[in-house]
Amino acid sequence: MSVNTTTTVPIVSVKNVGKRYGAINALSGVSTDVFAGEVTCVLGDNGAGKSTFIKMLAGAHAPSEGEMLLDGEPVTFSSPRAALDAGIATVYQDLAVVPLMPVWRNFFLGSELTKGWGPFRRLDVKQMKSITYTELDNMGIDLRDVDQPIGTLSGGERQCVAIARAVYFGARVLILDEPTAALGVKQSGVVLRYIARARDRGLGVVFITHNPHHAFPVGDRFLLLNRGTSLGDYAKSDITLGELTSLMAGGAELDSLAHELERSMGPDSAIVQELEKEAEELPEAAREEVPRPAAS
Amino acid sequence: MTTTDIVTIATRPRMERQPIRRLLARPEMGALVAALAVMIFFSLYTSNFMTLAGAGVWLESASTFGIMAVAVALLMIGGEFDLSAGVMTGFTALIVGVLTTNYGLNIWIAVVISLATALGVGALNGIIVMRTGLPSFIVTLGTFFVLAGIDLAVTKLITGQVSIQGMAKVPFYDTIQPLFGSSIRIGGGVFYISVLWWFLVTAIATWVLLRARAGNWIFAVGGALNSSRQVGVPIMKTKIGLFMTTAGAAWLVGMISLFRTSTVQANTGVGQEFIYIICAVVGGCLLTGGFGSAVGAALGALIYGMVFQGITFAQWDTNWLRTFLGAMLLLAVLLNHWVRTRAGGGR
């Protein structure tokens, strides 16, 4: 299923990158690799630096420190367009679709196929419809009617159209910004399947999420972010779902939250009891790796 | 990897789109039904509505509104308004009138200068809207009043009157007049060339909307501006182009009214901008952009022309026209809202 990570050169490799906005350190010391045919998951809570990280990958922001390698060569992207030309496509949360337009028009929006010359240059509607149908079919989406407005599709299906579009237009690396965040359990499952499909077609996938249960089944590599720093970059063989979950949840933070609530709500309140129990159940390793937040 | 889920979503019960349903979801359907109803009503109620003479009158009436409604519809599909569209028709005609009658400029050159000025104002509208991010409603309301003031003040300053006289005596007037103001007699009816212009503009606009890249971009910038930018649609070019198209259409209508009557009033076109918008909305355009049709807007204008003249034929008080238009607009908006929630917006 996955390519041997030790013998191939990663498509994209980031080494100790960081980003400062003026005096604010949004991200520092982050390293990971994206290999063809693998899924690199970027996990972190709100404000962990996930969006700063993808903006650097996608070329929207240049890193202030560290370096990025593309096929082993150092590279800096001056714009999202430059990243796109290098084959790094980003599917943002709003998916960049126009809800009232038909699926096929959305699929080719901005890169329409035309035929004819001069003032008679016109859309090659037949060709675009058939390519849309075939490409979606290849991703396992059987839309009988590519003429329906994309707004009539479910959230998961729309996500998949956006992924299929990026794949068709030559993406080698696909960055997915929280594709499952707004979806229900079943729809999330559908999207995860398409992520696996894209991976199986040889793309390097960067899957940003805050849900370890979504990341673990499809991921080959996990980059954990917390408050702008890396908590580690693990291969799948080095980590279990339980450890991933506890790292994400922040065992130590859970502890301190329980203490804090104890003061305000009393040690016997149900919520405090619950939290303490949860913190105790976490593996010891998880609690130590997370730095205790500074007392406020 | 199993495909059970994939099969599940593919066969998930969804709106089965039979041909009838699909037809009903077309933006211009409401206007088509309304146009037929109005036509049948006045044909039965008055004796001379459905004659060649009558048709010539209401087609002429609909034509100039139709040209503007189609251009305004494109702009509205692109997500913008142009309140200066009405006064622009007078502005362009006045430029030609003043330059020829007062300064003796060649009429062909004056017509071209008028077009260039209109396109310039249109581009300015577009650039201000796009650069500042202000609503086009406000920006073009400003342009509207600026132009309305210029029309009156400059015309009065230069000619000492509030209308242009003596156009027909301008040299070469006869070489250009047929292009915009000629008519032919068919049976007992007089049919103006403006009707042809109207059909032509509608046909070109429809082709562009449905079959050209620009049309794709118009729907996209009106439907979701940010998404369009992200996938590489040239949003500046598209929107500014739309404002210029509207201004260009206003120039065409200005020329038609100038050369049909060989005179122009300084307040020509003021107040008509809302009629264009009403025609476009009755024709199925959404006020929020991203949806609509050129044929629909043309039908909206046809309804306007038929009601306007039908009320006269029926010898009712013409003031009822406005009441009728208002009611039509409300109905159309309600219908559009319903269609959108059924066909597009929701799941």
How would you describe the overall organization of this protein?
The complex is a heterodimer of chains A (296) and B (347). With 296 residues, chain A is of the alpha/beta class. Chain A has 2 domains: 12-240, 3-Layer(aba) Sandwich (Rossmann fold); 251-289, no CATH class. Chain A contains 11 helices and 12 strands. Chain A has helices at 50-57, 80-85, 103-108, 125-138, 155-168, 185-200, 212-218, 241-249, 251-265, 270-281, 284-289; strands spanning 12-21, 24-34, 39-43, 65-70, 73-75, 88-91, 114-115, 122-123, 173-177, 204-209, 221-226, 229-235. The radius of gyration of chain A is 21 Å and the shape is globular. With 347 residues, chain B is mainly alpha-helical. Chain B has one domain (27-335): ABC transporter involved in vitamin B12 uptake, BtuC (Orthogonal Bundle). In chain B, 72% of the residues lie in helices and 3% in strands. Chain B has 15 helices and 4 strands. In chain B, helix 13 packs across helix 14 (294-313). Chain B is globular and about 55 Å long. The chains are: A alpha/beta (296), B mainly alpha (347). Chains A and B meet through strand 8 and helix 6 of A and helix 1, helix 10 and helix 11 of B.
Provide key terms for this protein:
heterodimer, A: 296 residues, alpha/beta, Rossmann fold, 2 domains, six-stranded mixed sheet, four-stranded antiparallel sheet, 11 helices, disordered N terminus, disordered C terminus, B: 347 residues, mainly alpha, ABC transporter involved in vitamin B12 uptake, BtuC, two-stranded antiparallel sheet, 15 helices, 4 strands, globular
Layout of secondary structure:
The complex is a heterodimer of chains A (296) and B (347).
Chain A: E1 12-21, E2 24-34, E3 39-43, H1 50-57, E4 65-70, E5 73-75, H2 80-85, E6 88-91, H3 103-108, E7 114-115, E8 122-123, H4 125-138, H5 155-168, E9 173-177, H6 185-200, E10 204-209, H7 212-218, E11 221-226, E12 229-235, H8 241-249, H9 251-265, H10 270-281, H11 284-289
Helix pairs in contact in A: 5-6, 9-10
Chain B: H1 4-11, H2 19-24, H3 29-45, H4 52-77, H5 85-101, H6 107-132, H7 136-159, E1 163-164, H8 173-181, E2 183-186, E3 189-192, H9 193-211, H10 213-223, H11 225-230, H12 235-261, E4 264-265, H13 273-282, H14 294-313, H15 320-343
Antiparallel strand pairs in B: 1-4, 2-3
